[in-house]
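Task: complex structure prediction.
Instruction: return structure tokens for all chains below.
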Amino acid sequence: MADVTLMKTPAETALVQAFESARTALPGQAESRAQAFEKFAERGLPHRRVEEFKYTDLRAAFREVAPFAGIPSADEAKAALAGAKALSGVAALQVPFVNGHFVREAVDFHNLPENIEIVPLREALANGHDWLAHLSPIPWASENPVYQLNTSFMADGVMIRVAGPVAAPVHLRFVTAAASAVATATRILVVVEEGASVTLLETHESTDGANHQPNDVVELIAGDRTNVQHVRVNAEGDKALALSTLAAKVGGEAVFNSINVVAGAATSRHQVFALLTGENTNLRVNGATMLKGTQHGDSTLVVEHGAPHCESRELFKTVVDGEATGVFQGKIIVPHHAQKTDGRMMSAALLLEEGCAMNNKPELEIFADDVQCAHGATCGQLDEDLLFYLMARGLPKKEAESLLVQAFLGEALEFVENEAVREALVGTVEGWLKARA
Amino acid sequence: MLEIKNLVVQIEDKRILNGLNLTVNKGEVAAIMGPNGSGKSTLSYVIAGKEDYEVLDGEILLDGQNLLEMEPDQRAAAGVFLAFQYPLEIPGVASMTFLKAAMNAQRKARGEDELTTPDFIKRVNAAAAQLEINKDMLKRALNVGFSGGEKKRMEILQMALLQPSFCILDETDSGLDIDALRIVSEGVNALRSPDRSFLVITHYQRLLNHIVPDTVHVMHAGRIVKTGGKELALELEANGYADYRESEAA
Amino acid sequence: MPAVQETIDQVRSIDVDQYKYGFETEVEMEKAPKGLSEDVIRFISAKKGEPEWMLQWRLDAYKRWLTMKEPSWARVSYDKIDYNDIYYYAAPKKNPAPKSLDEVDPEILKTYEKLGIPLREQEILAGIEPERRVAVDAVFDSVSVATTFKEELAKAGVIFMPISEAIREYPDLVKQYLGSVVPVTDNFFATLNSAVFTDGSFVYIPPGVRCPMELSTYFRINEKNTGQFERTLIIADKGSYVSYLEGCTAPKRDENQLHAAVVELIALDDAEIKYSTVQNWYPGDAEGRGGIYNFVTKRGDCRGRNSVITWTQVETGSAITWKYPSCILRGDNSRGEFYSIAVSNGMQQVDSGTKMIHLGKNTTSRIISKGIAAGKSENTYRGLVSAHRKATGARNFTNCDSLLIGNQCGAHTVPYIESKNATAVFEHEATTSKISEDQMFYCQQRGLSEEEATALIVNGFVKDVLQQLPMEFAVEAQKLISISLEGSVG
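Output:
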């Protein structure tokens, strides 16, 4: 165990105590948990002086640590899910989690759609399972303190195997319904086998007014010639401190598209770690973030082109209102052997009110010479001339602003193929703008 | 009826309009001609309510309403339409979406019901056909990737759909070839009516062969310096603006 | 484009030895005892005949430095520096403070002749193009050995002299401005410099004066085991203008030498300072032995309204470069510009960029950075653009492009873009690519060799920045870039 005296803040001390008291009760994998926690404890909660957390100081954000949520009763789970709204109009296979725990009663294991298998993680950890070997697919992700915390505390989740084309989307629905603050640590593993395809939806909702602390990790291993569409919606409650990580390892000639839409939480940080391991793969990672009040939203992205001839496109749009703060940190890494890489990353931010702020840090780290890589970053207000043009056509100012903001965010949503999903996302944007007006 | 009285306007400490007086009656088509830098475009922006201009003195009344106290969208709802010299491109906003938003916003401001989608589409199609605007153009983002002529036709389409009572055409002929000029002019002429006035701002007489004005005003150094009938435009075409420059200097 | 032809000729004429300034000058030197202590600082201060306040300033800095930790940087690695194994003061023994050129050691004069630095005014005046006169302050290790055109400049009211002299002659000006842009406590190397700086240039342009000629300082490290700690202070008073150039070279040696300079620029209302650097310190050999550690703090303060500071740099030398010439845009409507070409080859490590800190209203900044990495070098652009709460209407445009030549080097871009004001508009774009095969083929098809084609295309790549340099410097810089890239193709 790490030296407890290294810990400084009450939250860090509380995390040590939480780990000490929970470790024996947590299912399986005791050794890897201990290792992860030890690594975490060496440095503690990351703060401003830690480069990757320069703009999101978790030491300051974690004033106290919420207790980890227990397993809800069947009735509690049912009630919680009944109130869930995110992407509810989209026909999909529901895989729900309440308070961080998989609601297995909600899944009809005997009648799963073709080409899909689901294994509850809790049982797998406790009893052992072949697929567990696939956990932690990206070696360098385990250096990340948020990821380490999830590995230390992960209590539940599912493992999904996709063996061929899956028609309907798979909806991972996370609902935290506790009245007082709880922490959760869920882990999802999705293995998409060679040539298979699937659409993954992920929604996160929690009750307003409580300082919930979700920390979830989705790991994806997509084989050669796979096609994976991933849509994530953060609709967390207004006091939540939401941390999340997507770690994706993608093979050759594959297509992987991911978008994260942020409309909730007091403080959020979504990390995307992507590693491309085969040639001719096409990666797209987008973000559409809407922040108001004193919200803080961080999108952090690391893409490693681990193979030649791959193309990646990253487009992050952030709208900041009130006194909110937006953060984008993106890094494209191209090692020596990844020749013919084509990588383009763009972050654009709209600042709507005087008191808001945006921090952009787009990075390129390039060791191969035959590449085309670029990044861009802009931040500024809505174009005055466009506003005038719209108003001269009779649109009131707020409406003109809304139309421009929608168009601005819309660019990040465009690639979502599933029409029902895309419309629901546009609806989320409209809802946010209505609440603003 | 539009009345402008003693309008004094500056931008960044530079005086552009110097006590301008102008009246455009209901149903009248008035042309404003003048050399570059005489303040023609400034006048159009000030009537429509662009922010950067500082109005130091004077008033602008449209049917008795004081436009200077209104936001640009309120002016639009009151009937002011400005066809921009350089229409703006708005990426991500489909032309149809934009047209619907604008039409409904104005209807709402006038206390009318929103258009139903079929009704809206019917109106757009009718107006678009006349201006030779195809469906593809309407599907694209507003003005993005449009040619100069397409942009101007899109402006006139909006004018046709929004049915304003006071239309300003700011150098609408600039950048148009002869065919586009014809289409645009026909579009404008079709909208001429006893209830609608036009202010046609142009540098050249060419446009006025197509849109024949009732009155021609000559603008120089931020003022109307001469007013006459349509023959005044021909006179200017023959003699240029030199006379007015000299008279100003004298 | 004649300059391109010149580049090609230069590339052709290169033999094995690429660094042509690597010779050594035999001069008898007087040195302070090796290592760093209060006594050494007192020794330096006494040698310079400094007043008591200056000595105190140095000693305070030294005390502070002792409490500081040497920084460790993300992308720069080097063996630990032993600060007690360095000479902090080395001056020619014969007449360390010459009154005129006749008193300067002829060996030193020969050195500058070899480097192509004109020190004799009459020769310069006899030159072909007298309108392009440049006043030079020549710093040899720890002392200034000659400053030209002092009298003519004095007629215009311009003060241009070694800073050691200015401390004695204009103590009030120095006191008012020294350390006002780069505080004594700013960073490890700036604090070290504050304690031990030996010489450098002082420039003061009075109100309303347009400096009648370019000013320049030429730095030469000659002595072994010597660190160079120069200090430059330039003040452009209201409505004045000055263009200043800085050049530097050093002999080839197997051990590393430390160069830790501090440059402070102050522009008052409506004043403009252009500061250009061609940095060509010895970069070390192909295996990474030797070379200068160039750890420099350069910062300009646009203190007055409508003031302008422009940094232009061509970085080809040094084993390690760590510098971020920055602008604090304090005055309303002030403008900061940064134009940079950084070429790295062999085992060189470059970590350079700028900071544009927008504090005043309607401040604007522009950053154009061109990085070229070859060999096994690492070339990083690191930059900060920030708008503070009150920086209404701030504007920045940044363009940084990197070019990789060969598959063993690295090019990295690390921008930090922070806006706390909604009316600020920042635009940043960056690209990394290689020389296009189509371009190469086209050039080769027209008869250029691969190396010539590379030189031609690289010159095109850096053109935007070269254009910012004064004419002769641009030509010099273009040659340097080609020389630095010699051997990188194929």
